[in-house]
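Practice problem: DUF397 domain-containing protein
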Amino acid sequence: MAERYTNWRKSPHSDPDSHCVEVGRADDGTIGIRDTKQHGTGPVLEFNPAEWAAFVRKIRKAGING
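Answer key — structure tokens:
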């Protein structure tokens, strides 16, 4: 599943050496999130653009930023 995503980038709120997440985007606009400790072999949590926007709004509203 991770193969469909490109331009994976690490969250700026992640620790430099651990507890990291990466975000990638598929051609259809789907956003994927994965744990860097899995080295690209673990599961990917997927969001469509509307779900991603709602997720980010909730995190910001809750004050969760790493």
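Discussion: The radius of gyration is 12 Å. Students who identified this feature from the tokens alone can consider the problem solved.
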